[in-house]
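Need residues for this backbone.
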């Protein structure tokens, strides 16, 4: 299970509008090798769902994660902090044993 906070859901919806993404577009979150801690998060809008994907919905925003990435993300909370000192999207990942200072890279 992946949780998407209300703030993150609102930001996803706003980004869809800014990017002129189709109404059916979902935010795809992936884990890929790389980054200063070993793995990094990748996000992009996608309109295609395969049989290897899981969809999580909150506040009208849909987040799609492939089965392989889900192994590293199960139990994660996707949040968003904006404003002058905001950090953007925040991955609260219980599977990460360490993460970098910027929060976009982690190790398991």
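Answer:
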């Amino acid at each position: 299970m992946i949780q998407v906070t209300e703030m993150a859901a609102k930001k996803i919806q706003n980004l869809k509008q800014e990017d002129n993404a189709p109404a059916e577009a979902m935010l795809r979150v992936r884990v890929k090798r790389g980054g200063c801690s070993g793995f990094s998060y990748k996000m992009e809008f996608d309109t295609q769902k395969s049989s290897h994907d899981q969809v999580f919905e909150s506040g009208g925003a849909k987040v799609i994660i492939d089965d392989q990435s889900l192994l590293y993300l199960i139990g994660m909370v996707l949040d968003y902090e904006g404003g002058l000192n905001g950090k953007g999207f925040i991955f609260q990942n219980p599977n990460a044993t360490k993460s970098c200072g910027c929060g976009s890279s982690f190790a398991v």
